[in-house]
Amino acid sequence: MRTSLLLCVLALILTSCNNEPNYTAQEIIDKTIKVSGGELYKSAQITFNFRDNVYKSTRQCNKFMLERFATDSTGQITHDMLDNDGLMRLRDGKPDKVHDTLIAKISDGINSVHYFAHLPYGLNDASVNKELVEETSLKDTEYYKIKVWFNQDGGGTDYQDVYMYWINKKRFTIDYLAYTYEVNGGGIRFREAYNARTVNGLRFVDYKNYKPKTKDYSITTIDSLFKNNQLQLLSKIETEDVSVELLDKDC
Questions:
Q1: Where is the signal peptide (predicted)?
Q2: DSSP state of 40
Q3: Cβ(182)–Cβ(45) under 8 Å?
Q4: What's the domain range around 136?
Q5: Which of these ranges, 111-115, 156-160, 205-209, 224-228, has the smallest mean pLDDT?
Q6: 189, 194, 195, 193: which is closest to 225 by C-alpha?
């Protein structure tokens, strides 16, 4: 009897030690957004430099504006503004009409830079779908592996792109991500986050940007290529001089 009781107690202890929460993909993303700033994203003005251009985003009262300031070789400043109503361009402070064939290209370029700089904010947009693929490890750290894809309605011109996020099981931070793309013949990229810092309550990172050395890859297994040193470093994605101004939440 005593032996049976001890075995039962031991079984309970082992079960409780291994009883990790069974989070859904949605719950994992919610925690990740919260850790990185949560509600602060919704009422903030964020400014940063990226590859000789200045970017600024403003979100307040369910409205947004994404901006880019670029200076050409003649000193002219192009100011692009993308908001709820569409794209507008100023050149040296004066309205400059954008040809219809360039609107999508310019808008996508602005949106893409802001998207990566503001991650994980945006992963709860209405057009986003999420799936917990598996739990895995990279560099001796445990991760939730989350697949993200988009609805055509509201998913933008690149709605067919697929993303994968490796979210740290302890910290709930995005330490790695990968994505497929269809433009220019298509391909895949893998990014490793580094230089994490918090600015006025919001978390930012830079990325090492990799591509596969071979054509034998998929979005699901690209982390195995990273483990086996089968990725080539292409560039570094660095946001500099980041500033955050928290705005009034009252609308």
A1: 1-19
A2: G
A3: no
A4: 26-246
A5: 156-160
A6: 189
